[in-house]
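Sample intake sheet
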Amino acid sequence: MRIDVLGAVRALRDDGSPVDLGGPRHREVLARLVAAEGRMVATGTLVDDLWTDPPARAVGALRTFVAALRRALEPDRPPRSPPRVIVTEGPGYALRLPREDVDVHRFQDTLARARRDPGAVTDLGTALADWRGPAYADVTSSPWAQRERTRLEELRWEGAELRARILLDSGEGAELVAELGAHVAEHPWREPAWGLLARALHRAGRRADALATLRRARTMLVDRLGLDPGAELQRLETDILNGSAPLDGARTAWTGPGVRLGPRTTVDLARTLALAGGDALVHSRRDRLTAIRAAERTGDLSLTARIIGAYDVPAVWSRADDPEQTRAVVAAAERTLTALGPDAPADPAARLLATIAVESRGADLSGAEQQRARQAALQAEAMARDLADPALLAFALNGVFLQSFPRPGLAPVRDRIGAEILDLATRHGLPNFAVLGRLVRLQSASALGDLDAAHSHADAADRLADTTEAPLVPVLTGWFRARAAAARSTEPGGPTAATAAARYRAAESALRAAGMPGLHRGLLPLALLGLRLLHDRPAPTGPHLDWGPYRPWARPLVLLAQDRSEEARTALAAAPEPPRDHMQEAMWCLTARAAVRLGERAVAARAGASLRDARAEHAGAAGGMLTLGPVARYLEEAESCAGAG
């Protein structure tokens, strides 16, 4: 079985004959599962991706599509035996095929291998030849497919340029002139492509045409973008004029999506995009990593350190949006720091350490990685104070803040960090860090139950966002205002629980397009669970709820709400220790509540011991976006249960 999406969506049997996949919706379901790269896609997500306005029986229709696809892809599967290609997993479905049997996965893996090993250039050429047209070509109107199409098209361009560069570096490439000419004509803003075309022309003995190509590139960049060519194109033109063009070993090392206008310009653009949110945020993360990899290929340690450290975008959430990308950034920073050695200049070293601290966040970090990140944060802070650089210190304190979750109950510590960031930013004109300081203080006040102070910080953050054009800020403060409504829903004369739930759902709609999956996934179900706990109601059990990273701790309460006590007991025993992040108090409180309901004294004792230092805080409110109520309530229950008998 083979599935192809680099063109129209299709499936082929081992003998090459096509599989009848059914109608457009069937093909889109299959395509969406391909795009998930083996990860589970929740039923609710599939419904939202398939329909702009889902019909009343959308879930039933989706199940029908999946069942039909399973019959088409596994026609010989015995009755009642489990599917092997499209499997049910948790609240959704996942595609289970070897990556080499899906053309888009094969292409991405080949491109990654060619980045590391030029010897894979032949395989890269084969993978590029697999493209039959735009990716997901027959899924034309779906936003998810449009996003994937754009992303993959840029990877396709990068692959074509990488293949050309490898061939030119190896002394070949004269035959690439026509191919690169067409590529440049279609994508005239891609600066590396102009350099590759000029090199191919020069290798073909067409020196005058090579120079004319570089002059056309200059005209295009100046006329259309108002920018001069980068240093690499300028150097290539000089080399050709002097008869010393780098025919063996490319200097045009800036490969990847988008315009490469020089290293700092690229990173500055990525920083700007990151603050814009949405698709721009997603692109900024991708472009940033591309710039880092390109800088590393130059072998210039100073340049690489500047590229890595220049992306000082404030970060307020302790779970990474793209764990793979953040790991790659941290690894590059560590490599560069090690190569610079103990005598590295203080400024780049501090920026590298701050980057390690800011990027090293997420539930999948090992104990050693967590310890290293905290150490890096403190080192960066000390070096920034010695350098008396306010902007660098604000960036370093951002890292200290993100590493301030070693245990529950540290909201006052984070408030002091936020206050210093805000003071630095106000005194030295750092508006983006002023926003960060306000949001940190909002979170801390929310965690301590001081909603008046939190409202004040939210209002101030919104005013700053108006002047700095930071559209993500109202998304975050909108969640806080929904959290405040939830807290007040237990008070006489306060909003009803239904009103609070509606506000959470409105906040979720705004967050969905913000480009922050590390924050978005699972947040709404957790908020609704917290609202129900505030009103002493059972957990929500809807089939469409994607609990995301919070599932292990929510599941025992969901099962209890369904009167499945023994399954709940098993789920409670399997739940790991909560990660040390914004939600650790909330996860311990969920553990405590389930342990009390099930009479599991040992688990209740463990939860109580973990929550003791957070007695004065509100569960879940450390992020300022939801609340499960006072920690003291859960702590007292846990201590009573643990001491019973």
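Comment: Strands lie at 2-4, 10-12, 41-42, 86-89, 92-95, 618-619, 629-630. The radius of gyration is 27 Å.
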